[in-house]
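Example complex used in Figure S2.
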Amino acid sequence: MDSTEQEAASGQVATGSFREVWQDTIRRLEQGDVGALPVILALALIAIVFQIANHHFLTPINLANLMVQISATGTLAVGVTLVLLTGEIDLSVGAVSGLTAGIMAVLSAKVGLPGIVAVLAGIAAGTLIGLLQGFWFAKLHVPSFVVTLAGYLGWQGALLWVLGSTGTVNLNDPLIVGLANTRLPVIVGWALAVVFVVAYAFSQLRERQQRAQAGMEARPVSVVLVQIGVVAVALLGATYVLNINRNANPRGVPIQGVPSAVLFLLGFVVLFDWITRRTRFGRHVFAVGGSVEAARRAGIGVDRIRMAVFALCSTLAAAGGILAGSRLLAVNQSSGSGDVLLNAIAAAVIGGTSLFGGRGSTWSALLGALVIGSIANGMDLLAFASSIKFMVTGAVLLLAVTLDAYTRSRRQLSGRS
Amino acid sequence: MDEPRPDPILQLRGISKRFGAVQALSDVDFEVYLNEVVGLVGDNGAGKSTLVKIISGVYRSDSGQYIFEGHEVNVTNPHDATNLGIETVYQDLALCDNLDVVANLFLGREETTTVIPGVIQPISELAMEQKAVQLLGELHVRLPSARRPVATLSGGQRQSVAVSRAVMWDSKVVLLDEPTAALGVEQTAQVKDLIRRLRERGLGIVVISHNLADVFDVSDRIIVLRLGRRVATFDTHTTNQQAVVAAITGAVFGALEGAGDGDGRQEEESRNG
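Predicted assembly (690 residues):
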């Protein structure tokens, strides 16, 4: 392209050819800057292994189920990712998701408030809980680990109290039930996918164009096109699979279309990806995760960022809890307990967000939730015992954190800490 | 050089600071002019760091005047100092290793464009990068790319990024705390070049250093602190290292006046001298 000379003239290192970009990528991988590659390889491996073991794994109906199953975990993991980016941890997300879903359920089914009011009240409760925990950590200087561990116990207790003697509250408000259990009309699913791909392609190409015009180092058009192609294939492929009729009885009512729960998860991932990478707030989140002292000296309100991140995390936990309640049509005493918390944190970490702060992306929440969800789903198909499932999931988590620690030491060796 | 000097951009008069039983600074005067590099030297515990922290607003002095551009000002926190145009580069540089050079240069002062006021205001990466590249070019700071994470840069490059950030915002005075400590020979030379370029831009620069060779290389004047007092001031071009060392250690006070001929003058006799 004509811009190559400009780039060279600007005195910057122009990443001119496709080959150079490829070599640069390899070099970064060797230095421990692995990004999302391990998790994508893991997903491919999981798909192959389970498909060989049980040919139902890659059927449209199972993939649709899998996507709905991970939507709550993934939403929680998006919030956990935000907290991890600042170098902190939130152990209360499971309990908060249960409590806020419980508040919504009681307000809707017992108090009789309209569904929308109950949902918003649940979300608001999540925000308040997050603000409280964030305040306790940022202003009272209690480690986030301890504050949220106390929350983990306390909010579980609050859930039992909110649910009262009945224990289980069934959901029947159409809006609440519809949150997770609506299938988009086929045409709407396609339209959304196409609009997203076109918007993505447009923004990527425009950004590249602007950079080239300004004489700044710009990626070759070929690389941008490959990237757009990958996104288009992934998104349109997923839409295609979810739009296939999943009803085993071909004469029955067709079951097809993108489940609304999946749309919510994708929406959260894209929205918070944009917020973390494109706004001042997001930049400051990364700065706090990189160096609290540097952030403070640059005039960033570290306490404010920390409280905001914990508030967002608990808000997303509430959204995830409400999605889970909607999917299961009920909230009970065990909502948000068990492996909900661990899965959310594991998803964020397996997806490539560092436990050490300052590195990661909300996409890791989606990818990590897919890994955990596929393993659980695959083992369910093979009718594995719970004992085996826990041990396998634990091993995968350990592997992911080990990889994180290993690549971190590689980065430090090559000065990419 | 003989024309009468304008007023100093920054002047401190009669600064004292006590920490409990320790009198860190006693009645210290300090001044830096535009277009000048001042070397602030002294042994460990002489009060250099305390003085720098008072200038940069981290500490408040117990007594004394803080005069900026001819007016007495009240500097009670680091924000006050940066608002005046006084930037400090500490030894630890205060960079976010996980962010790239552009993000670090603009940290806390990111530029945004407005799509929907108050709601959608994305960061203007391109505008920031252009300004960053322009500034780095003006300062002759060579980096592999302005989009590399700071962690991938060498020590000298990191120091250069931290210094560049200090001059990014129309600052008038830049304080550099041990800018060449922990740097290799070539990187030290880079940083010294950078300091000279800051002076060419008309800034007042204060270099705090243990390394007298470096101070002699870049400074115009040298101010010596000893045991919390300003004991001597030298014109770098007319003095020599022995004279400065003597003032720092207080070892040969009698010889001082002769050694620091002309502009070098003894300010005040040290009690313990």
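DSSP finds nine helices and eleven strands in chain B. The longest helix of chain B spans residues 185-200.
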